[in-house]
Each structure stands twice: as C-alpha cells, then as structure tokens.
Amino acid sequence: MLKVLFVIPSFPLPAHSGGAIATFETLRSVAGRCNLHVLTPSPQTNPELNLVALTDALPGVTVHSYEARDQQLPKFEMYTTAALTTVTGKPYWALSWRNRDLRLAVQRLCSQYHFDVVHAEWLQTAVSIWDLRIPLLIRTLDVHFLGMLDWSKSIAPSDKLRRAFWQRQAERFRRFEAHVLSRASLVVCLSKEDEAALREQGVTNIETIPPPRALAPDRATTRRESKERCVALFVGRLDMPVNREAFFHFVDQIWPTIPERLKARCSVIFAGGFPDQELRTRAATDAIELRAPLSDSQANELFDRADLFFSPVQSGTGIKIKTIEALAQGKAMVGFINAFRGVPVTSGCEALVADSASEFATMMEQLVANPTLREELGKNAQRLIQTNFDPAVLGTRLLEVYEQVTNNARTRNQARTA
User: Fold this and answer.
1) Rounded to an integer, what distance in angstroms lies between the CA atom of residue 211 and that of residue 229?
2) How far apart are CA 304 and CA 99, in angstroms?
3) The whole model's pTM is what?
C-alpha cells in the first residue's frame, strides 16, 4: 500500500470554502486506499471538536500539525517583504507564502516515514517544499499569476507606482509558478482550462483530475412547494475580488432588467465571506439579502431553502466548487460560462448558460417562473455530477498518479546510483 503525505494549507473542517471542500472530499476519496498521513495547521475554531470530526471522517488516517502563517501579514511585515522583493528579485507572494515550520515538518516526517509520495495541496504549500529532494506531486487550485495580473490591472491607473509594482510582481510570479510546477514530479489541475494555461507557460508534467463530489442527501422534503417566493441563492466569499465583481455586475447589469412582477416573486440572497460596507450599502439599496459571514449549518439551511442557484461570476481560474456543490444538490442553476469552468454542462440540459447580462436576466426569469424546468435541470445536474465527479472513480485516478510519481522517483534514484 502506498504511503502518502498529504500537505494542506488550512484545516479542512468546517468545509466552508471551495478550497476546503475540494481538499476534504479528495481526502475522503483516497482514505483507506493508501497509508495516508495528513499534515495540516491546527483548526482556527473549536480545535478539539474539529480535530475529532476530522479523525472520525477519515478513520485510519494519521494527522500531523504545523504552525500556519497568517493569511494577512502585519503591515510592517508586508512592507519588509515588499522591500525584499527588490533585493532578491523574488515575487512578493513567493516570499509571503514561504513557511519555515511547514518545511521543517515535511523534512522531519519524510525522514521518519519515508513516504512514496508527498502531495502538496495548492501552490501555497508547495512554495515551502518544492526544492526538497522528495517525490512531490502538486495539485493546483488556480493559475495564480493570472488572478494576480487581473487584480493588478484593477488598480486605478492614477495610482501609477502601486499599479506598476504589482504588475511587475505578477509577471515575476508567472515565471516562478511555472518553474515550481515544472520541478514537481507531477502537477494535478482541476480543469482542462487551467491545464491549457499552464502548458502555455511551458509546464508539461500535468494531469487534469477534477475534485470529487458525491451526490448530496435528498433533503427536498424540507422545502415547501407552496411558498410564495422563489429563493435564488449565490454562495461565495464576498470579500474575494471575483465574487465582489460578480455581485456588482448582477446589481448593475442584471437585476435592473428583471420585471418588477418577477422581482416580487423572488428573494435574491448573496451569502458568504466578509463583504465591505460599499457592498452592504448597495445590497440594502437594491433589496438584496446578504448572509455573511456564513457558518456551515447556515449554508446547509440556505441550500435547503433555495429553489435555484445563480452565478454571475465572470473571471477567475481553477474550477468553481460552489457550482459543483449546487449541481450535486440538484439545484437548477443559471450562470455565465466562467461559472461552469471545468464543469461540462450543456445549456438547457443540466443548467442555463448565459452569454450576456440580458440573457442572464431572461434565463433567471424562466427559472423563477417555471418550477417544472427547475426540477428537470436539477435532476439532470445530479446525473452530470454522478458521471463526472464520482469519488470512487476520481480517487482511483489520483491513486494512479501517486503510483506514477512513485515510479518516477524510483527511476531517478536508480539513475543517481548507477
């Protein structure tokens, strides 16, 4: 049985964000099928309760811990790190993500257990260990430099120095990201779109394996079919630029074009994250309901109540985990094409895919007005998830690439000793 060290950037429970959901479901898909060790930061909330929950959910898995760095650096450290980029020529994010405690923990555990594979979950963990002599697989959540470049372009042109600094950092990270991934034995992407973007950067050691997702338990009986208002739900961290951009596109371009008679029949909810005051004020002005921050139990309650899921997301890389979550729960969904990145839907069959704001509004009207269409799309969506995101199938594929990493490491070791 393969011995695997699975290194993750944040504790996977509660699985309240897309990255945590993908990590937790992946762990469940391979647990019991290999000798699995998990290296994770300690839980930030309810540490004892969440640690017990993780070991209960993953029986037989050995859990180790390391000290995580703060996601948001203190101001002094931010400025120090920015100054170091000038001296070293390294990108800001590479320096800010590097974690000495993580690196030492991986070295210690590899020396003690002699793992066949070290799985670095997301690039944030790989930054600290990519140059160690270990059989390394890196799974990428996003193509990070693309998001960094988009963000730098959003800085006001009048702020010339700041805009130029971050555009230069994004370009540095482009080269760094490609170099790190190329040094790994194997890279796993979540979508074919990400694979194509990385191959353009010269990364060739890639396999695409989407994150596994079992169908959600049928809780449809908790919904009241006779309720007067249709609940339309978007779930995503509203403090993230991609989701914040989606919110404002919805309230500026989509919601104003929906007839008042249909607005009266629909409750629109944006949920998740920590929205800023500008977003909160705009939501109140347009009678949009906000639910943020959002606990797992509150998220489950919202999914139970929702009649449809909508996603005006237009940018970002990776795969949209919340889309997979909605489809797995049998929700009718409307979204722009990027909301279905990595999810092979056919518009009109498993979901409705809009090309413009006006088409999005029309499709949303159709879903609000037509319960039969919502039910048909939801059933087809679950079949798509069952076919393309089956944990048993995708867990097997991941184990196969673990074998590939192991064989590559053996070949390299034989070449060194020859």
Assistant:
1) 34
2) 40
3) 0.90
Burial 326-341 (b: 16+ CB within 10 A, else e): bbbbbbbbbbbebbbb
**Element containing residue 208 per DSSP (H, E):** strand 206-208
**Is the Cβ–Cβ distance between 130 and 183 less than 8 Å?**
yes
Asked if 370 and 265 count as a contact pair (C-beta separation under 8 A), the reply is no
What is the rounded distance in angstroms from the CA atom of residue 99 to the CA atom of residue 236? 27
Phi-psi region of 202 (alpha: psi -120 to 50; beta: other; left: phi over 0): left
What CATH topology corresponds to 3-212+390-417?
Rossmann fold (3.40.50)
Joined together, the tokens standing for residue 138 give 């890196």
pLDDT digits (tens, 9 = 90+) for 238-295: 988 889 999 999 999 999 999 888 888 999 999 988 999 999 999 999 999 999 888 7
Q: At what angle do helices 144-154 and 160-183 cross, to 10 degrees?
A: 180
CATH 3.40.50.2000 occupies which residues in the chain? 3-212+390-417, 220-388
Kindly report the number of other CB atoms within 10 A of residue 64's CB atom. 16
Q: What is the DSSP string of 299-347?
A: HHHHHHH-SEEEE-----SS--HHHHHHHHTT-EEEEEGGGGTT----B
Quick check: 341 and 191 in contact, CB under 8 A? yes
> Residue 16 forms beta bridges with which residues?
none
Question: Cα 230–231–235 angle (5° rounding)?
Answer: 160
What are phi and psi for residue 351, nearest 5 degrees?
A: -165, 175
**Span 360-415, pLDDT tens digits:** 999 999 999 999 999 999 999 999 999 999 999 999 999 999 999 999 888 777 66
Round to whole Å and give the CA distance between 394 and 400: 10
Q: What is the pLDDT of residue 16?
A: 65
Output DSSP code: residue 230: E
If you classify domain 220-388 with CATH, what class do you get?
alpha beta
Q: What is the DSSP letter of 238?
A: T
CA 42, chain centre distance (Å): 20
- CB of 296 within 8 A of CB of 16? yes
Q: What residue type is 359 in one-letter code? A: E
CA–CA distance, 151 with 130 (Å, rounded to integer): 26
Q: With H, G, I as helix, E, B as strand and everything else as coil, classify residue 35.
A: strand
Question: What b/e readout covers 202-241, taking b as 16+ CB neighbours within 10 angstroms?
Answer: ebebbbbbbbbbebbeeeeeeeeeeeeebbbbbbbbbebe
Per the DSSP assignment, residues forming a β-bridge with 188 are 139, 207
Other beta carbons within 10 angstroms of residue 261's beta carbon come to 9
